[in-house]
Amino acid sequence: MLPVVLGLIGVAFATVGVLGVRGRLQRNRFFGVRTKATLRDDETFALANKVAGVPNTAAGAIALVAAVAAAVNPALALVIGLVGLVGSVVVASAGGVLGHRAAEAMPEQAPAGCGGCACGGGGCSVLTRA
To answer: What's the pTM value of the predicted model, to 2 decimals?
Structure first.
């Protein structure tokens, strides 16, 4: 049972990582790096998940190797499984932190309207520019 769970976790991490690196992971509420900064817009989400993609792929590989090792050696399956699970979660979390930091470093886009100034009464005022 443990090798199956680790295998599923590994496939999930690896899939999200590869999609992130390739820029194919669309902004969503379930997969990838999802923080306030990364969900700001599609471009920021794509950058964050591109940065986090390599660590997520590595986390998937760690979980898959642990799944195979646990299946091959049932006597140590629990120890191997726990080490593999903790290792993959730590590496994926580190990737998430890197992705979040990359998203925070991106400048926010100016709001649509009158060129990014604070609009009031249908026009832009020199005194209300941000």
So the answer is: 0.80
